[in-house]
Amino acid sequence: MAVVATQLKKGQCIEYKGEQGLVIGLEHRTPGKGNALVMATIRSFASGRTKDIRFASSDKVDVLSLERVTLEFNYADAEGFHFMDPNTFEMTTLSPALLEGNEQLLTENLACDILYVEDKPVSVELPSSVELKVVEAAEGMKGDTANNPTKPAKLETGLEVQVPLFVKEGDVLKISTETKKYMSRA
Q1: Same domain flag for 116 and 133
Q2: Angle subtended at Cα 8 by Cα 66 and Cα 25, rounded to the nearest 5 degrees
Q3: Which of 123, 131, 143, 175 is 20 to 30 A away from residue 37, measured at CA?
Q4: In which band, very low, low, confident or very high, does the pLDDT at 19 lie, cut at 50, 70 and 90?
Q5: How far is CA 149 from the centre of its chain?
Q6: Cα 26 from chain centroid?
Q7: Same domain for 156 and 120?
Q8: Rounded to whole angstroms, what are the CA distances from 186 to 38, 94, 98, 127?
Q9: Is 159 left (phi over 0), alpha (psi -120 to 50) or beta?
């Protein structure tokens, strides 16, 4: 289904010049001189990269039907990452490429949105934050409180993040899935 570029919305899946992608940002611009335009930030399903595309306000864009299904992560093995539908208990195996480097944020039973285009999984959307347990943390230096110091900590999934000095082994931390950085203690 083709729509005019000004009717694009964030979260839609489009096909442009033979490439499919997800609209992750939109900006309508009206320059002082000339016609209005739409700047769209698109994340490609093929490469995982983002790029900005400029559309004239009258350009037609193909919008693909998108289905969003919430599945729970179960486990990973040599075949891929296994997700389960909590309603039907049906298992789905996804390739590591769909996770785009976010493997270390997955924990058992974590609910993720899987995006399907034409019955084919194209992207995995994680929640905005996850809770992970600290399995290894260096001791903070006593008296080292100037300039908001941090120390490295290793989490249960193998992810290493910089944390405040008061964090210790056994603490459960809230980690941003977008930046992979410490947010707070859970």
Answers
A1: no
A2: 90
A3: 123
A4: confident
A5: 28
A6: 17
A7: no
A8: 40, 29, 28, 15
A9: beta
Which of 87, 102, 125 corresponds to the end of one domain? 125
Q: Which amino acid type is present at position 9?
A: K
Give pTM, 2 decimals. 0.74
159 and 109 part of one domain = no
Q: Please state, in angstroms and as integers, the Cα–Cα distance from residue 107 to each residue in 104, 111, 138, following that order.
A: 8, 9, 23
Domain boundary among 64, 84, 106: 64
What residue numbers bound the domain in which 75 lies?
A: 66-125
- What is the C-alpha separation between 15 and 2, in angstroms, rounded? 10
Residues 6+ apart with CB under 8 A from 8: 14, 23, 26, 38, 40, 55, 61, 63
pLDDT tens string 145-169: 667 788 899 999 999 999 998 889 9
Place of tokens 């033979």: 18
Is there a contact between 107 and 156 (Cβ–Cβ < 8 Å)? yes
Please indicate, yes or no, whether residues 81 and 53 belong to a single structural domain of this protein: no
17 and 38 in contact (C-beta within 8 Å)? no
- Tell whether 30 and 6 lie within a shared domain: yes
